[in-house]
Design goal:
The complex is a heterodimer of chains A (about 525) and B (about 425). By secondary structure, chain A is α+β, with helices and mostly antiparallel strands. Chain A is built from 17 helices and 8 strands. The longest helix of chain A has 27 residues. In chain B, about 70% of the residues lie in helices and about 0% in strands. The chains are: A alpha+beta (about 525), B mainly alpha (about 425).
């Protein structure tokens, strides 16, 4: 276990130095001065207690250690400041507390710490280095009298490494100083031998430090029937219920309670009010519960409950919410429609936007044309459903909820409804003072309106087009009844501004007229399909 | 024991004693002159008077803090049963025992606080003077009556402690009774606790409440650090000057100089540590009511005074007095001690002068500051010296029968 024993030299061991023993510190001090004055520098004194002035008596020069500390401290300061400047201002500039990247006040504490750290470590290790430590042993310990250096005797030492060292002269010098004993210490190699005790201590320490690791490894690779160790009991067993666990507090034994019907959680009005959703969420809850029950029954492997429609049957809003129908909203809706919808659906809503036209021209075969907003299916949709489509999209169309606020969404729906009505206007929709020229639709296309959707976007013949010949189709002049004023303005504007409306030549006054009159008060889109 | 005591001249030089009255007259003249400079060189009598009142307070604290440091030094030496300081403790006792007179010199400040004007303390205006909600809420604490009571308590504690340590030490000069030392040691603990509380709250009341909207819990420690630092500088300078006159030459040796210099060095660092601790938290928190104080001190030229303090109150003396070889050279240390006293004066100016209602045009380099405040400072320093010389009189400068004295004389710092 211990280091190999040094080879015994065949020759006589060299002198390591001379040691003089005194019985009081005054004699030692006297001897120190004498030795110093004789020119010896590699000397040392050993005393059981500190004596002032022994450094001067021995001629020991001040240590250079403070310079190590000073330089290391300065290095620590510079390291900390450079490091932080580089990290915070150059390499990874990151705003912290709104301070500048190079915020020097914040660097000071770290600079302080690193100064202390560098200085302290350097001082300790430089001290060890300057003293030639660690040194396992010193030949002076071979002298049994030296043990009293920690008790009641005072020793003076002259090292053989001194440049004036001469064994005989040193002995004579020391003998003259009133020493009670002068001994020569022979060189040995005890300092090369690592003490067995130290090795045992280190190995024991290493072995002991492995114990926790072993315990952990053992625990990770074995199974135990005993209860686990709860270091932090109140963290493992907190007085709270976790999700998906039962509880006896509530009647239904569930920890998570569904919202109370008819209530809205704070900040969740978006999920509760028809204005934000386009449908009445309370009316749909029964349906959702049904599908949930089915999912649960599927999961649990029971007989699955009867399948419901994939699309939940929502109760759409049939009427515009309060405040939506107005001239301002119409203008907003027009702007937003032309910004977001017209590229595909076209300015008049026939699904002939620029994107659609270009895709059709390319004829790649997989282009699904946009739906015409005048398609009977679309025209029949309640406003809530249109709103839902605007927000969430449908089929290939993406949702526009993120780019439109609630008001703008309803404005777009309003504009869509106006577009639809403009393309299917009845005579009654025409405001007073405006002469109407009714054109007869071609006979063969009239009944096929439902069957031909997007394929022919430019077929307004299916409906009953009208032509306004009013010199100034302003909405101000077209308000016969206050009740339907908004609806009537819708009739005129899109038509007046849409150059693509094709007006057939042949004028006649016929079918659809009566039906349109019946539904004059309500939007044309929903009425014409019935 | 007495055989170990060297024969030394322990009395104040006769030529110095006569200076006491000269200094007193010079001090009073300087302070009046400063009042004149402030009132007639500023824009307006009212504002000039306000500046002078603050200048008086700042310079008062500049000198008085040295005496507070001396009092703490005396007590802490007894508390830890220090032997090395026995030969220099008398000078600290004498410095501390000028505190009763400082209580007299506080009366002008008390008048300003009770006058109902904001000469020094804005809170003295009282309720309903548009001081802002932060100050309004503090008016139950900061009002003339309560302020007077508190200041009276602080001075009672300080004067009691200073008298106690001075008188018993003088008694020991006669009797050489070592029981007295034991008694002084026994009372050191409780008195230091009272001292800590009174200095802390004294700093809050006397100095911090010049900007009553602002608050800093470390302010008292800041004043304590400044006091100790300036006290050690004062000690070094006093010992040096006395030794130059051939006094206490053997009683105070190089080892004592080195130790006082070490303390001074330590308190340079401590002052910087406390000052920076206060600044860092407010800088980082960046909350309006906490940063106002620094705002007043970063506007105009006051910012540069702050930078000067960082350099001259910390960095330069820190590096300058770091070396053992410098600390053991009395004349060099005397220079550094004078330097420290000057930056302590700058520090007190920085604490008091940029008060909230101060005109922004009045920067530290303006005429009224350079002349008015400096002349006031010189006057206060003259009064301080006069008081100290008057206090010393023919009292020996070393506690000659202190049982620790032989040990103090044999004292030696390690290599």
């Amino acid at each position: 276990m211990s280091a190999p024993k040094p080879k015994k030299k065949p020759s006589e061991p060299q002198s390591h130095g001379w040691m003089a023993e005194y019985d009081c510190e005054h004699k030692l001090m006297e001897a120190c001065r004498k030795v110093r004055d004789s020119g010896y520098t590699k000397t040392d004194a050993f005393l059981p207690f500190p004596v002032h002035g022994i450094d001067q008596a021995l001629g020991i020069k001040p240590t250079v250690l403070p310079w190590f500390s000073l330089c290391a401290g300065a290095l620590g300061t510079c390291t900390a400041l450079t490091m932080q400047y580089f990290f915070n201002a150059v390499d990874y500039p990151y705003i912290i507390s709104g301070k500048p990247f190079a915020s020097w006040p914040a660097f000071i504490p770290v600079a302080f710490e690193l100064t202390v750290l560098f200085a302290a470590f350097t001082t300790v290790f430089a001290m060890l280095g300057l003293n030639g430590l660690p040194k396992w042993s010193n030949p002076v310990f071979t002298n049994p009298r030296f043990d009293r250096a920690t008790d009641d005797r005072f020793f003076l030492w002259i090292d053989a490494a001194d440049k004036y060292f001469n064994s005989e002269k040193v002995r004579e010098l020391l003998a003259e100083t009133g020493a009670i004993e002068v001994d020569e210490v022979k060189d040995d190699h005890s300092s090369d031998i690592v003490p067995r005790k130290l090795i045992i201590t280190i190995l024991t320490g290493i072995a002991a430090s492995l114990i926790p690791l072993m315990v952990v490894l053992n625990m990770r690779n074995s199974k135990s029937g005993g209860s686990r160790l709860h270091v932090f009991f109140d963290m493992d067993y907190q007085p709270k219920r976790k999700t998906q666990t039962p509880t006896a507090i509530f009647e239904n034994n569930r920890v998570q309670q569904p919202p109370v019907p008819g209530t809205v959680a704070h900040g969740e009005l978006d999920n509760a009010d028809p204005y934000y959703l386009g449908y009445d969420p309370d009316a749909v809850s029964a349906n959702v519960l049904e599908s949930t029950t089915r999912l649960v029954s599927l999961q649990e492997g029971d007989q699955p409950a009867a399948a419901t429609d994939a699309e939940p049957q929502r109760k759409w809003l049939e009427e515009f919410p309060e405040g939506v129908v107005s001239d301002e909203m119409f203008e907003i809706g027009k702007a937003k429609f032309e910004q977001n919808c017209a590229v595909c659906h076209g300015f008049s809503g026939y699904g002939d936007g620029l994107v659609a036209q270009r895709a059709s021209n390319l004829a790649q075969g997989y282009w699904l044309p946009p739906t015409s907003l005048h398609d009977s299916k679309v025209a029949a949709q309640p406003v809530g459903q249109l709103y839902h489509t605007v927000v969430n999209g449908k089929g290939k169309m993406g949702g526009y909820g993120p780019s439109l606020n609630f008001e703008e969404r309803w404005a777009v729906v309003l504009y869509v409804k106006a577009l639809q009505r403009s393309q299917n206007a009845a005579e009654a929709d025409v405001p007073e003072g405006v002469s109407v020229k009714v054109v007869t639709p071609p006979a063969e296309t009239a009944p096929a309106k439902v069957g031909q959707p997007e394929a022919e976007p430019k077929s307004p013949e299916a409906s009953t087009p009208i032509e306004s010949e009013a010199p100034a189709p302003a909405s101000e002049s077209a308000k016969p009844e206050a009740e339907t004023s908004a609806a009537e303005t819708e009739v005129i504007r899109p038509e007046a501004q849409d150059p693509k409306v094709v007006v057939p030549e042949a004028p006649s006054k016929e079918a659809g007229d009566g039906a349109a009159k019946e539904s004059a008060a309500e939007p044309v889109g929903s009425g014409s399909d019935s | 024991m007495a055989a170990n005591i060297p024969n030394d001249n322990l009395n104040l030089p006769a030529s110095w004693r006569g200076l006491s009255s000269v200094f007193m007259i010079a001090g009073l003249v300087c302070i009046m002159l400063a009042a004149g400079i402030c009132m007639f060189s500023g824009d307006g009598f009212e504002k000039g008077w306000q500046i002078f009142c603050h200048s008086y307070l700042g310079n008062y604290m500049f000198c008085m803090s040295i005496c507070l440091g001396a009092l703490f030094f005396v007590m802490v030496q007894h508390l830890v049963r220090a032997s090395w300081s026995a030969s220099i403790r008398r000078i600290a006792e004498l410095l501390a025992f000028t505190l009763p007179w400082w209580a007299l010199l506080f009366i002008p400040i008390l008048i300003a606080a009770c006058s109902g004007n904001d000469w020094i303390y804005p809170w003295a205006l009282g309720k309903g003077k548009d001081l802002g909600p932060l100050v309004e809420a503090k008016l139950n604490f900061l009002n003339p009556l309560w302020f007077t009571i508190r200041v009276a308590v602080y001075f009672a504690v300080w004067i009691f402690a200073a008298r106690f340590y001075f008188n018993l030490s003088r008694q020991q000069d006669e009797t050489g009774d070592s029981e007295i030392t034991l008694k002084l040691q026994k009372f050191a603990g409780p008195l230091i606790m009272l001292f800590a509380l009174s200095v802390n709250f004294g700093a809050f009341d006397i100095m911090m409440s010049t900007d009553p909207a602002w608050f800093s819990t470390i302010y008292g420690v800041y004043l304590f650090a400044a006091s100790m630092l300036s006290f050690f500088a004062m000690m070094i300078l006093s010992c040096f000057l006395l030794q130059r006159e051939g006094r206490i030459e053997k009683m105070v040796n190089t080892e004592h100089f080195q130790d006082m210099s070490k303390f001074q060095f330590g308190f340079i660092v401590f002052w910087a540590y406390i000052a920076f601790s206060q600044f860092l938290l407010y800088w980082y928190g960046n909350i309006p009511e906490e940063t106002t104080w620094y705002l007043h001190r970063s506007e105009g030229g006051w910012f540069y005074l702050g930078l000067v303090l960082i350099a001259f109150h910390f960095a330069i003396p820190f590096l300058g007095t770091m070396s053992r070889h410098i600390r053991r050279r009395k004349s060099v240390m005397a220079f550094w001690a004078g330097f420290i006293l000057f930056v302590h004066w700058l520090d007190m100016t920085f604490l008091i002068m940029p008060f909230p209602t101060l005109d922004h045009a009045v920067n530290p380099f303006s005429w009224v500051m350079l002349a008015g405040n400096l002349v006031c400072g010189v006057g206060m320093l003259c009064i301080f010296l006069s008081l100290v010389l008057m206090r010393v009189g023919d009292i020996p400068l070393v506690a000659v029968k202190d049982p620790w004295l032989p040990e103090a004389l044999a004292y030696e710092v390690g290599p």
